[in-house]
Design a protein that fits this description.
Number of helices: 3
Distance between the termini: 34 Å
InterPro entries: HotDog_dom_sf
Oligomer: single chain
Radius of gyration: 16 Å
Strand content: 35-45%
Number of strands: 7
Helix content: 10-25%
Pfam family, one: 4HBT_2
CATH topology: Thiol Ester Dehydrase, Chain A
Organism: Massilia cavernae
Protein name: Thioesterase
CATH class: Alpha Beta
Number of domains: 1
Mean pLDDT: 96
Length: 146
């Protein structure tokens, strides 16, 4: 399973002295981009291809708190994918030590940056998605609309 250990930093904190809700979304996006970079698609390749991931929906569930300078272990799994690869659902689990503290599920697609519409990813990127571990509740998503 793809994972990285990050840190709950100063900029991640809210008024209640725990990690703010948007910090979970930021760390989820960071982990996605680290995954793609590790699988041959760094930001420079997305710029060359003129495509990028676009999030259409985020769902955040909280179970435990993170505080300043806590280690945050974040995993990524594929919880949905369309047959043409244009749509995906990515799940990030956040662990404090070995305890599930939060979960972010993002529904996303591939945006053609010139045409501003969903497109199918190139074969290598589709393969990178196919290589991701799948969640127990993985589902097939609808293909892009023509």
């Amino acid at each position: 399973m793809f994972e990285r250990t990050l840190m709950a930093g100063w900029g991640d904190m809210d008024f209640n002295s725990h990690m703010r809700n948007t910090a979970y979304l930021d760390k989820s996006a960071d982990l996605r981009m680290l995954y793609f970079a590790d699988h041959g698609f760094p930001m420079s390749e997305f710029m060359r291809l003129k495509i990028g991931p676009v999030v259409m929906k985020d769902e955040v569930e909280y179970f435990r708190e993170f505080h300043l300078l806590d280690e945050v272990r974040v995993t990524m799994m594929l919880s949905g994918l369309s047959e043409d690869g244009s749509r995906m659902k990515l799940r990030n689990d956040f662990y404090r030590k070995d305890i599930l503290a939060a979960r972010v599920t993002s529904t996303a697609g591939w945006l053609d940056l010139a045409q501003r519409k969903l497109v199918c990813p190139p074969e290598g990127l589709l393969q990178a998605l196919g290589d991701a571990d799948r969640s127990e509740d993985f589902q097939v998503l609808p293909n892009k609309r023509e």
